[in-house]
Amino acid sequence: MSNRHLICCAAALAGALAAPQAARADGRAALQAACWAPSALAARPGERTPVRLSRPASMRVPNVAGVQEAPTRAAIAGAVRRVALPPGRKLVALTFDLCETPGETAGYDGAIVDYLRSQRIKATFFAGGQWMASHKARTGQLLSDPLFEIGTHGWAHRNTRLLGGAELKREILAPSLVYAAIRTELGQAQCAAPHAASFSAIPARPALFRFPFGACNAAGLQAAADHGLVAIQWDVSTGDPSPGQSARAIADLMIRNARPGSIIIAHANGRGYHTAAALPLAIPALKAKGFEFVTVSELLAAGKPVVTDTCYDSRPGDTDKYDFLLGRRLSSSLPREPSPDHARAAPTLPR
Ligand SMILES: [Zn+2]
Fold first, then answer.
1. More confident of the two residues 332 and 91
2. What is the model's pTM?
């Protein structure tokens, strides 16, 4: 039943997971204000630009070997492309990938985040484990923001179609460990002490996963589901990784292709070349068409996810090309197993 679209019946469970978080989310604003001045939240010059490394960074990879399987599988099996909503509801989810590969320190496109905050627009960020490790403060700021949700996006942006066993588990699960560690560190900070209730509004672990390159196979989908992660694709692609894609073109794609329940993909790691300039063109136009912006978890809770049993960009098979391009190079650029030093510290995921 390759590529068959399914209307999944798990929305009720997804809603049960998402609704309490949404209801408590506003409490996070006080925590964020206590821990960061507005100037620290704002974009900084130069931070958007990725930095190529002459040697791969020797970044600590969390050891996932001792981490137990999630007590419950993800509520949704397969890859979510969009959500079918009840008639009259015009919700849409903006998503921004924060990819980082071993050969670089990726950027943080603060102009995007600043604009979303200024307009009170909700969004979901899919952050790579390596990106979170190299952007701990930014990750904490996004976690503490009631507008935003963080899902994960692989450890080192490896093509999971080329991985198996321990390597596949590490690529999918290691970002959850970094997320949990940064969340814990935030909760232990002095600034957070008076805001324990607000801190509890930050989900203890991520619930959403986006496959690097938008490419997956059955084993990857199974591994994500086994760790309680719902795979999120998209039905509206901005094409923003292309330097030739103008802000006007990105905005027009968003305005023309978004429909109720859509999930829009863009990038906030400095590889979305004109994304920040496109948002002030697209978002007011979408608002004028009656759309409301929500996080992916809120979108899932509002309807029935449209799920496929494979991952793709615009048509089935179109991301398989990465098996023969970047995927093998990236896969071969990492150590095969964590070093013994890493193996001594087996972090655990909060339940
Ligand atoms: Zn990516």
1. 91
2. 0.87
Query: How many whole angstroms from 161 Cα to the centroid of ligand 1?
Result: 14
Distance 238 CA to ligand 1 centre (A): 13
If you search the block for the tokens 């896969």, which residue do you land on?
Answer: 331
Distance in angstroms (rounded) separating the CA atoms of residues 218 and 331 = 19
Q: Please count the structural domains in the chain.
A: 1
Compute the distance from residue 99 Cα to the ligand 1 centre, in Å.
4
The answer to whether residue 227 sits within a structural domain is yes
* Structural domain contains residue 350: no
Render pLDDT for 329-348 as a digit per residue (tens, 0 to 9). Answer: 444 444 443 333 333 344 55
d(CA 12, ligand 1 centre) in Å: 29
Domain limits for position 20 = 6-36+72-340
Specify which residues 96 forms β-bridges with: 125, 266
CA–CA separation, 94 and 100 (whole Å): 20
pLDDT value at residue 22 = 46
pLDDT band at 25 (very low <50, low <70, confident <90, very high): very low
Q: Averaged over 203-225, what is the pLDDT?
A: 96
Distance 87 CA to ligand 1 centre (A): 33
Side chain identity at 204, as an amino acid letter?
A
What six digits make up the tokens of 229?
Answer: 């992660």
